UniProtKB/TrEMBL annotation:
Transmembrane regions listed in the UniProt entry: 6-26, 38-61, 73-93, 114-140, 160-181
Protein name: Sap, sulfolipid-1-addressing protein
Keywords: Membrane, Transmembrane, Transmembrane helix
Record lineage: Bacteria, Bacillati, Actinomycetota, Actinomycetes, Streptosporangiales
InterPro entries noted in UniProt: Gap/Sap (IPR021315)
Amino acid sequence: MAGLAGLALVDSTSIGTLIIPIFLMLSNRPALGRRALVYLTTVACFYFVIGVALVLGLLPTVKAVGELADPRFFRWIELAAGVGLFVLSFRLDPKRKREAGDRSSRWRERITRAGNSSAGMVALGVTAAVLEVATMFPYLAAIGLLVSADLSPAVWVPVLGGYNLVMVLPALVLLALRLAAADRIRGPLNRLGEWLSRHSGDAVSWAVGIAGFLLARDAALHLGLFQFAVEIDL
């Protein structure tokens, strides 16, 4: 569960879950709190539905194949995928920094076009989630961990719901501060938004690396590799 919480916190720093909410908070439009809440609820619910669909789609396949093959074989695949993602994180193109900055500018324009309506915020949230879902490596890694754990729906559904709540929690905390402190927090929020925009390219590398590490760690624990290493040391 600690690994899932770590992945959720990494996901909470993406453009859709933090940078766009900060841009929303910097505006002086009416009903700021309601608009931001509608956006964050849309993003969290969208990812929750996608997560449920992925788990339900993958579980039967994993169970069916698992009956025909050694379960350890799939742990070795998980280990290889985790190591591969971790290595890939060091080789990501540094030009992503500039691309991330360009995306942030485009999102500012989309926020302006979304207007003041709740329908506009819902559309903005769905658009952000759809465009980012393929690059949410921590979320996909979390889905993989839930599937590999072979949990019952009574367990994995609330866990997935909690994951999505943690994913938008930093934005909710900042929103509460924005509403409580009014314009006094606009300066720090603006600096944070600009900093995140400049460094969101690095966040992709970190996300891939952390997702790979947690996948590899989970596989190594189930394969008993850490115990094996301790025995060799002794």
